Automatic annotation (TrEMBL):
Catalytic residues identified in the record: H344, C363
Organism phylogeny: Bacteria, Bacillati, Actinomycetota, Actinomycetes, Kitasatosporales
The name this protein goes by in its record: Ig-like domain-containing protein
UniProt KW Electron transport keyword: no
Organism of this sequence: Streptomyces coeruleoprunus
Limits of the L,D-TPase catalytic domain: 259-395
Domain of life: Bacteria
Length: 424
């Protein structure tokens, strides 16, 4: 009897274990049931829904519109002109908002087909901007995208200050001169981003004087009456390691009549020719034998009805360090060089000086009156009949030829030497 009881007990324990194992299998099967509907239950027909069907149902609720914001989120050194843009595929844009870190809203324009948006105002340097965009697909389902980027800083960007001014009329000798605010090491890339053309069809070539100055001119003087166009396409151009251009601008200026004036230091006269014909000869007083005037082709770069001339600013000082001269009201002054050569009116010299004696510190003087108020004076006539960009040629002086980078005087280089200074 004792043995039988033990056998029944073992049998009961085996049945319990089997039952527990079966229950576990059933429970495991329920937890891994792949045939449940998307809401965890069965559909109305009692059929189970597969995971693939669940994913498909979710996808059908998502907009097909795909928004792209440029620059990418988190970008730095972004352009202030061209980089910012929002586009969409498989849908249309319904709203785009762009704001600066200070909360200023940036104006923009949507394309006619609502496929793209761009700001219509130039961005600021070293500024963080945020863009929020919304689009809808053909079914009216919305998509959203957000991005933030930072524009290039002043430390990481360069600009070029150019002359002449947009819309101006200048003489035939006026080069396009660009001075960069930072040294340029990648000259080829920068020069490739600048285009200068003339309506005359003249070939125009750039010449680097140094790492921060690039001038453009044709072989001969510009054709009178032509139009010159300067295109600065420097936005995003890397001028040196980590330093990018930010300018995108088109400038046009007109070339006036062809006026070239020749100063003969020996003869002490200046002959003015317009379109190849002599229109006037004026007596002058050039630099003294101790301070001769430069020879060469010089271009008028600035005009002042009256200006101060202090010898101390150009190296003419006495034993006390004061300027050998300091005239606060020099009339009808026009700059010919950076170093201080001018052609100007002279009221302090006697009338007999002009045409007879060279007395200046290197400038070319014409008879004039104090106050620049007499239009009949030779200096006044020449001032009124001269344009920035007109050429003044000085010859027969005992001084050397002016350096081509001393002012806008690149015409003193041969065409071969000029082209040799191009990076292209």
């Amino acid at each position: 009897m004792e043995k039988r009881v033990m056998t029944d007990s073992k049998r009961r324990r085996g049945l319990v274990a089997a039952s527990a194992l079966l229950s576990g299998v059933l429970l495991l099967t329920a937890c891994n049931d792949g045939d449940k509907s998307a809401d965890g239950g069965s559909n109305s027909n009692g059929d189970k829904t597969s995971q693939a069907q669940v994913d498909q149902a979710a996808a059908e609720k998502t907009s097909q519109a795909r928004i792209t914001i440029s620059p990418k989120n988190g970008a730095i050194n972004a352009s202030i002109n061209n980089d910012a843009k929002v586009t969409v595929t498989d849908g249309t844009l319904t709203q785009v908002t762009m704001t600066s870190a200070e909360g200023k809203t940036i104006k923009g324009e949507m394309s006619a087909d609502a496929k793209s948006w761009q700001p219509t105002e130039q961005l600021e340097r070293a500024t963080t901007y945020k863009i929020a965009a919304t689009a809808k697909d053909a079914e009216g389902r919305e998509a959203h995208e957000n991005a933030s980027f930072t524009t290039v800083s002043k430390a990481n960007s360069f600009i070029g200050n150019f002359t002449p001014e947009d819309g101006s009329t200048v003489g035939v000798g006026m080069p396009v001169s660009i001075t960069f605010n930072k040294p340029i090491t990648n000259r080829k890339a920068v020069q490739s981003g600048i285009e200068v053309t003339s309506s005359s069809g003249q070939e125009v070539v750039g010449h680097w004087f140094h790492s921060q100055r690039l001038d453009f001119r044709p072989d001969q003087y510009w054709a009178e009456g032509s139009t010159v166009t300067l295109k600065l396409k420097l936005d995003g151009v890397e001028g040196s390691d980590g330093v990018f251009g930010v300018q995108q601008k088109t400038v046009t200026f007109k070339i006036g009549r062809n006026q070239v004036s020749t100063v003969d230091v020996n003869a002490k006269t200046m002959t003015i020719q317009r379109n190849g014909k002599t229109i006037k000869t004026i007596p002058i007083s050039a630099g003294s034998p101790e301070n001769p005037t430069y020879n060469g082709q010089m271009v008028i770069s600035e005009k002042f009805k009256e200006t101060r001339m202090n010898g101390a600013t150009v190296g003419f000082t006495d034993d006390d360090g004061k300027g050998e001269y300091d005239i606060k009201d020099v009339p009808h002054a026009m700059r010919l060089s950076t170093s201080g050569t001018f052609i100007h009116g002279n009221y302090w010299g006697s009338d007999s000086v002009f045409g007879n004696v060279n007395t200046s510190h290197g400038c070319v003087g014409l008879n004039d009156v104090k106050g620049a108020g007499d239009p009949n004076q030779p200096a006044a006539w020449f001032y009124d009949n001269s344009l920035i960009g007109d050429v003044v040629i000085v010859k027969n002086s005992k001084d050397k030829t002016i350096k081509p980078d001393n002012g806008l005087n690149g015409w003193n280089l041969s065409w071969a030497d000029w082209k040799a200074g191009s990076a292209l």
